[in-house]
Amino acid sequence: MTGLRSLALLLPLLLGWASGHPAPGRRSFHKLLLISFDGFRWDYDQDVDTPNMDRLVKEGVKAKYLSPPFVTMTSPSHFTTISGRWVEEHGVIHNMLYNSDKGWKYDFKATQNKTEWWDNGVLPLWITAQRQGRKTASFHYPGGGAKYDGEPVQRSLVESYSHPDSNETEWRENIDIVMDWFKKEDFDFVTLYYGEPDNVGHRFGPETENRRVMIQQIDRTIGYLREAIERHGLTEHLNVIITSDHGMTTIKMKPEVTEILLTNYVKYRDLVKFDLVDYGGLGMIEAKPGQEENLYQALKNAHPSLHVYKKEEFPKHFHYANHKRALPILMYTDPGYNINGRLILHINKGDHGFDNSVMDMKTIFRAFGPDFKKDYLAEPFDSIHIYPLMCKLLGVTPEPHNGSLAVTEGMLRDSSGQNPGSATASKTMHNVVIGLGTVTAVLFVLFIAAVTYTAIQRKKT
Ligand SMILES: *[C@@H]1O[C@H](CO)[C@@H](O)[C@H](O)[C@H]1NC(C)=O
Ligand SMILES: *[C@@H]1O[C@H](CO)[C@@H](O)[C@H](O)[C@H]1NC(C)=O
Ligand SMILES: *[C@@H]1O[C@H](CO)[C@@H](O)[C@H](O)[C@H]1NC(C)=O
Ligand SMILES: [Zn+2]
């Protein structure tokens, strides 16, 4: 009867395995990965073959396009996504950290470490989620390297100066690292950032072969992500949102147009104390003491494609200028016109920062995972509504914000007013049934083996 005895020994082990796997009822939410590909214009997948992104449309949610906040720049827009607040409310109003009194500026990468630029009293989702017991991490996502209300993001990797934007091998390694964070270390919420296709869009322009080649690299990376999720057994446990911060448009140059060069209209030496220009379609200037009106008058009608305002008069629908960091004179341009200060360098063939109602500034929203509907095409929406959606997915109570869950919850499988845990509960039940089924099957095989073994033993004696 050796066979039956070994069966008896195995039984507790098998039952232990069944109850420890898949940890039924431990959580009432799924994990969430937010990925941002910087500067991915809404229609970039329409003139390139993107089999993986096309597959995602069938297997998840796609919005026709996504509207970023104004100003359509990297740090302001990313911080709106992670906080659900308008730019003038979260205060990250530019990529540059600057001080108009002292005259210094720090660029995008240098700001990543600088808490004083990011922490203006509005909590990003990492911190809110942590305070409600979630484990969160940021991989190169703008703002992830700062402390908020004294608290750092539990794990944060900050992009270094020398970090290459487009190394596909490294992109895949980063996905594997993030999968390990979810799988081995049980992180609940991770934000992952890639600097492309922004870089290539600036350098070569959006309507180029270089940009199309980069979109194919991104598409392969999304394919790799799908594989990695499956390989790590996360398919039923991880929701993924793929989005971006703004689009890209081709910069207009002479002789096609008259370019905007501020020094043509104002005597810099007499009127300008500090300026933040040469960054696409938004500019801010502070006048020398007593010169504000002169500066404003000199710029107001300077160029037909340049729209100049005193701070208080800047269009309210942009939700942009009502912050102490905004300089006294603000201006924005028609799409494609760069605001140049003292000289025109023509470094960029493409740029962003323009009016967020312009189609070339629109960006992407894709999502898939256990909580998202399949083959669901959503109407265009503002990126500010991603925040309440993420809170809902993570089971986190949001901070006060400017988004609305009503805009995005139609994408969710369980959006018909049922209690939020029910899909998960039935899934857990399903897993338990599968687990018990497996145990029964194994027991049956062992039983047959034992009976056969016993029969053979009997024959021998
Ligand atoms: C961020 O801070 C760390 C530690 O102070 C430093 O080593 C790193 O170079 C900084 N990164 C950037 C992009 O400034
Ligand atoms: C790309 O990244 C991989 C993995 O991190 C590294 O081994 C390789 O040297 C990088 N290639 C370039 C051209 O930097
Ligand atoms: C944005 O949300 C904050 C916090 O709830 C609120 O104080 C503010 O008035 C809102 N802004 C707008 C424009 O609705
Ligand atoms: Zn960007």
Write the layout of secondary structure elements.
Blueprint: H1 2-20, E1 31-37, H2 51-59, E2 61-63, E3 66-67, H3 74-83, H4 87-90, E4 97-99, E5 104-106, H5 108-111, H6 115-118, H7 125-131, E6 136-139, E7 147-148, E8 151-152, E9 155-157, H8 168-183, E10 189-194, H9 198-204, H10 209-231, E11 238-243, E12 249-250, E13 260-261, H11 268-271, E14 272-276, E15 282-287, H12 292-300, E16 306-310, E17 329-333, E18 339-340, E19 350-351, E20 365-368, E21 376-378, E22 381-382, H13 386-394, H14 405-408, H15 422-460
Parallel strand pairs: 1-10, 1-11, 2-21, 3-22, 6-9, 6-10, 13-18
Antiparallel strand pairs: 2-20, 4-5, 7-8, 11-20, 12-19, 14-15, 15-17, 16-17
List keywords for this structure.
single chain; 461 residues; alpha/beta; Alkaline Phosphatase, subunit A; Gyrase A, domain 2; 3 domains; eight-stranded mixed sheet; 15 helices; 36% helix; globular; disordered N terminus; binds 2-acetamido-2-deoxy-beta-D-glucopyranose; binds zinc ion; transmembrane; Phosphodiest/P_Trfase; transmembrane helix
What does this entry look like structurally?
This protein has 461 residues and is of the alpha/beta class. It has three domains: 2-23 and 435-460; 31-248 and 355-422, Alkaline Phosphatase, subunit A (3-Layer(aba) Sandwich); 260-347, 2-Layer Sandwich (Gyrase A, domain 2). 36% of the residues lie in helices and 17% in strands. The strands form seven sheets. The chain has an eight-stranded mixed beta sheet, with helices on both faces. Helix 1 (2-20) packs antiparallel against helix 15 (422-460). It is globular. The protein starts with a helix and ends with a helix. Bound molecules: 2-acetamido-2-deoxy-beta-D-glucopyranose (3 copies) and zinc ion. The site of one 2-acetamido-2-deoxy-beta-D-glucopyranose has 7 residues, from helix 5. One 2-acetamido-2-deoxy-beta-D-glucopyranose is lined by residues 109-110, 112-113, 158, 160-161.
